[in-house]
Amino acid sequence: MKSLPFPILFAWREARASWHRFAYFFLCIAIGVGAVVGVGLFSANVEKAIFYDARSLLGGDLEISSRRFMSNEGLQVLDSLTERGIVISHVSEMAAMAALAESHSGNPSQVPATQLVELKAVERSYPLYGAVETDPDAPLDSLLQEQGSACELSPCFGAVVQDSLLISLSARIGDRLDIGQAHFKIMGIIKKEPDRVASAFSLGPRVLISREGLIATDLLQPGSRIHERYRLKVLPTQSLGPLLGELRGRLAKEGVRIATFRDAQPRIRRFLDQLSTYLGLIGLTSLFVGGIGVASTIYGYISQKMASIAILKTVGADAPVIISSYLFQSLFMGGIGSLLGVGLGIALQILLPSLFAGLIPSSIELTVSWEPVVKGLLLGVASTVVFTIWPLLTIRHIPPALVFRKEIGLGESQAEAISGVHRIRRSIKGFVQDRIRLVTGLMMTASLAGLAIWQAQSVTLGLFFIAAFLVALLFLWLASLALLRLLPLFPRFRLFHVRNALGNLRRPGNFTAGMMVAIGIGVMVIVSIDVIKTSLLEALGERMPDKAPSFFFIDIQPGQREAFTDLIQSWTEQGSSRVIPVVRSRLTAINGKRIDPEAHKGKRNGWYFTREYVVTALADLPDDNTIVKGAWWNEAKSADPAQLSSPVTQPVPMSIEAEAAKNLGLDLGSIVELDIQGVPMQARITSTRQVDWGSFSTNFFMILFPRSLNEAPITYIATARVGKTNEVPLQQALVQRLPNVTAINVGDVLDNIAKLLQQLTWAIQGMALLCIANGAVVMTAALSTTRYRRLYESAILKALGGTRRMITQSMAIELGVLGGLAGLMGIVFASLLSWAILYFFLGLAWVPQVSHLIMACILTVFLTLIVGLLSSYRLLAHPPLAVLREG
Q1: How far apart are CA 819 and CA 802, in angstroms?
Q2: Between 50 and 643, where is the model more confident?
Q3: pLDDT in tens, 504-524
Q4: What is the helix (H) or strand (E) element at residue 91, kind and residue range?
Q5: What is the residue extent of each domain of the chain?
Q6: DSSP bridge pairs for 292
Q7: 284: CB partners within 8 A, 6+ apart
Q8: For 371-383, what is the mean pLDDT?
Q9: Alpha-carbon distance 173 to 186, whole Å?
Q10: Which of 352, 577, 656, 813 has a CA between 20 and 30 Å from the CA of residue 719?
Q11: How far apart (Å, rounded) are the C-alpha atoms in residues 818 and 822?
């Protein structure tokens, strides 16, 4: 040990002797590192769960999915695969209406309840990987098989359902569900589906039935809205790469999506990547806020070590040697704090999965990966260096003469910082002229930017984050100085403890501005998230016009249009319903150039090239559409009134949504080719439209000239507006007369969106609370920095006749004003930040909930009072004589 260089040896001895003074230092680093490590481990564990369960999540080694029925040629291709030893499992998913055959309410005359459900039909080979868990625990085949006369009606099959369906229908196991033309006996509850990652947003509860049961429902009609999936399980000796290429070639005309288990759940992967990035940046914010506490602790520590530093200088130690000694000590303490943070991050693994329940796979194992741990340790140590080097530079200005003149202190710079604009200008001028500080400041900024880029895994996002963070710090700091500057302008209070409290806020060396900034940052993050969430929910409600439809109806067959219209008109007002023909299609060529879906995979606008379009043919321009370029067919100058009834020849006129036209590279006169369920159709762009997608009306990317779909296998969709009291009776009548038609309640969909948004908000705010926690630690660290000064002041007040109650009241007022000002700053800047995000990025109105803002300010004051009094109250127990004798 003695052979070590002096700075390291000195740092080790100092750390051993004074480690207890660094408790808040440890906490500041530990909370920040814990947030970063916790998010990193959470993300790694979720990614690991998806990777290891990839085959179960996809349902096979390879999946062929389509939004329409496979053609006979396509089915022949699949049949040829079974001859090569490949096992195929066919799964069909669709929305449908289910009716409970009888109610348990005790009223025999009550009409059976109905519920929109997500229907899933499977074969005996399902699942190829994993297992379906049910209650009671029994083979899935036996639960879904035909039940004979168990339903007293035929055909009758078994079904297993989500427990939420039993709750919503007040049903129980053994009851009968009527779906379409078939009947199903509820045989059990679904506890786990291996190929269903998350159920945070769904149109309704899951109902699992057999393929035979689905066929018996008679819901499989031409044009039905269905999701067909064919899962393949290959032999261990077979390679997926050649098979994937072969199927893409042989099924090119089917418009299917083919993916291997390595591509399982791309949406959940993207969601988790984005979520992990933003949660990680919140953790980094907490770490940077803790850095303010680190700087405060080091500043106070150096203030207490001024005599020792002066002695070191008198015996020949220069400033660089002393600075490096204390820097090594800080690194040692930062390493300990980082290790504590790793433990906190591991503990967060118990909490985070519960916050995101329903959004992530349920089979997550709580394991510790080295990469997030090492990253957290390095971030903790790096931030320690960045935030300690600046206060350590004050060592250069400590004169050796301090050994003889004890009144020399470091509080003068802080006094200058809060005493006026001209002093700030003088400080800036001094900073620019001090090359060491200037270079150090630039290096600190570059280091913070590097840490942000590393955490965000994106140069653009990292630079944007650090720029926003530094701007927020700057404005919060300037605002805190301005508020402190305004305090003397208040009327002079007669009560001494009030005057003393307000004066203490401006005391030199009190680090008031730093405490306000640290607390304000945490308040700003949490409040801005809450305001954005509130504004989004308000937008969902306010943008729903009074004449918005109550229901969307899908899968209306051509032969059912008149019956459906008669049924709807009996429950709605005249003109409040609308029936529209639709057909599902895919874009196959633009201006004669074939579209290769694989070439657009992963691109920003690739979705426009690879998605399936729902196309309609209308004579009139929809109410919520505005022509941007070109003209609508019945408004064109060359339009002949007889043209709308003349035969339609290809390419047929088409109007396209403006944003889609931009991303597809289309303009007036462009020719597009559509594959309408196997039948090619050419269309010429005659106009582009601006669409209000938030109008809750039926809107389309592509609208064709009237009668263009006369020969196509169309179905109809409809909208209707009914009174609240008629919603349930309408659904019940629909199930009885047209059981294949699915009714989607707009209010229920909005409720699901609101619940999902609320859950995400709670989860993100839960992480943001770590910023508040670190802000509280920073405040405690700052109070600890001035502990001896406060102790000396309280001793003088006691000696002059001040009571403990008066001193406590003074402390409480000081802390309350501090918390109130910090909360006010955080709320103001949260309002500005949320307004900017809502206005510039989301195009929504800023709608804060005033009660939430007031509550945030009150809670900030309360938290500041509790933390501050707990950390300062012990000072009052010291006898004034002993304190004054030592002072």
Answers
A1: 25
A2: 50
A3: 777 766 667 777 777 787 788
A4: strand 87-100
A5: 1-53+269-409, 54-267, 577-720
A6: none
A7: 32, 35, 36, 379, 451, 452, 455, 465
A8: 86
A9: 5
A10: 656
A11: 6
